[in-house]
Amino acid sequence: MASLKCSPLLLVLSLLLLVTFSDMAEAYGSRFRPSDCKPRCTYRCSATSHKKPCMFFCLKCCSKCLCVPPGVYGNKQVCPCYNNWKTKEGKPKCP
């Protein structure tokens, strides 16, 4: 009988873990497709006055990393590959 009382609790706990890990996987781009790059880069570069170079490098970074950080600036920690790709001079390659 004790195992029957724990079943609903175990089920709820399992569902919570599943939802948590699926959100984490989505945040790290596991469901990201190459077709998602253009709209996300368009938004990422929407606030800059240098749209062409921003789009060029954003699309290049996105195609390699399959991730674009949220927002128009910053938040690069969400996409480690995007964040860590540097130029020869050691500056960030991805906008």
Automatic annotation (TrEMBL):
Keywords: Signal. Pfam families: GASA. The keyword Metal-binding does not apply. It comes from the Eukaryota. Residues 1-27 form the signal peptide. Belongs to the GASA family. This is RSI-1 protein, putative. It comes from Ricinus communis (Castor bean).
